Amino acid sequence: MVSPWTIGIIGGSGLYAIEGLEEAQWIPVDSPWGKPSDEILCGRIGDVNVRFLPRHGRGHPISPGDLNARANIDALKRAGCTDILAISAVGSLREQIEPGRFAVVEQFIDRTTSRDNSFFGTGFVTHVSMADPVCPRLSEMAATAIAGAKGKVATGATYLAMEGPQFSTRAESRMYREWGADVIGMTAMPEAKLAREAELPYALIGMVTDYDCWKDGEAVDVGKVVAQMQKNSQLAREAVVRFINALPAERESSPIDFALEDAIITAPDHHDPALLAKLDAVAGRLLAPR
Ligand SMILES: CSC[C@H]1O[C@H](OP(=O)(O)O)[C@H](O)[C@@H]1O
Ligand SMILES: Nc1ncnc2[nH]cnc12
């Protein structure tokens, strides 16, 4: 039986491949938006097609600010994904979300400044809703899968996306806490926005690696992040497999599958054909002749 789900997994720092994929093969996927971070590891877990993309590339050559998130999301859409589960190393801004815990993200504060954050623009203007930026169905399944793998979970987390690549100052870290952010990272924006524009339901699991620098005497460094990721990466892999094995046989449609429906404002006689050509995957559902 062929599953209706094709799950895109975006692996963050420390998660550059996943094991247990049947018929696994790294396949290059071209995108009109430039070069994705790497080839996509395509395979199956049971009946479910899986497409794995290491966000920073194998060996972590790409810095957060240089990630081509448009190419990454477009390539996952071209590779047939119906849904995306992203995984990120995050710092914690809350005492009770300690390193080692998994934070399932529900909201974002986007403080990135220098990234291409939309597929759309002059010649095809759209404004998608980001009020509820993640897919509740995927997030709930992710939390269940982590708990099933005996991981500690925090749900409903707010993720602050910073520009980086430097870590925050103590004043910034304290300010983000006052803003209500729970975890901090450098990569989930504009990734989550672009997934929504591509009508791909998206959920984000933050793997908590450190307390950032708001706590007295604490400061984050790469060594701390990598050491904590190594401790938890096996559990993360197990949670991913559980998540996939628990997907229902049917995939009921999600409102996110139709996110562009009420978002496009440019009149057809003002469409830019060059931009439309690049949107063949992202907005193909609406642009294909009907
Ligand atoms: C290696 S520490 C900082 C680095 O880790 C996170 O990346 P990802 O979200 O891809 O796991 C963070 O956002 C920074 O890019
Ligand atoms: N404290 C932190 N700040 C930003 N990105 C992170 N990734 C992991 N820990 C982080």
Automatic annotation (TrEMBL):
For this protein, the record's SUPFAM superfamilies field holds: Purine and uridine phosphorylases (SSF53167)
Q: InterPro entries recorded for this chain?
A: MTAP, Nucleoside_phosphorylase_d, Nucleoside_phosphorylase_sf, Purine_phosphorylase-2_CS
| EC nos | 2.4.2.28
GO cellular component terms, alphabetically, are: cytosol
Q: Where does the record place the site Important for substrate specificity?
A: S168, V222
One Pfam entry for this protein is: PNP_UDP_1
Against Gene3D superfamilies, the record matches this protein to:
Nucleoside phosphorylase domain
GO molecular function terms noted in the UniProt entry: S-methyl-5-thioadenosine phosphorylase activity
Gene Ontology biological-process entries = L-methionine salvage from methylthioadenosine; purine ribonucleoside salvage
List UniProt keywords, sorted A-Z.
Glycosyltransferase, Purine salvage, Transferase
What reaction does this catalyse? Answer: S-methyl-5'-thioadenosine + phosphate = 5-(methylsulfanyl)-alpha-D-ribose 1-phosphate + adenine
Q: Name the residues that bind substrate.
A: M186, D210, Y211, D212
Where does this protein hold phosphate? Answer: S13, R55, H56, S88, A89, T187
Q: Which residues form the Nucleoside phosphorylase domain?
A: 6-244
- Which EC class does it fall in? transferase
Give the source's domain of life in one word.
Bacteria
Q: How does it assemble?
A: Homohexamer. Dimer of a homotrimer.
UniProt protein name = S-methyl-5'-thioadenosine phosphorylase
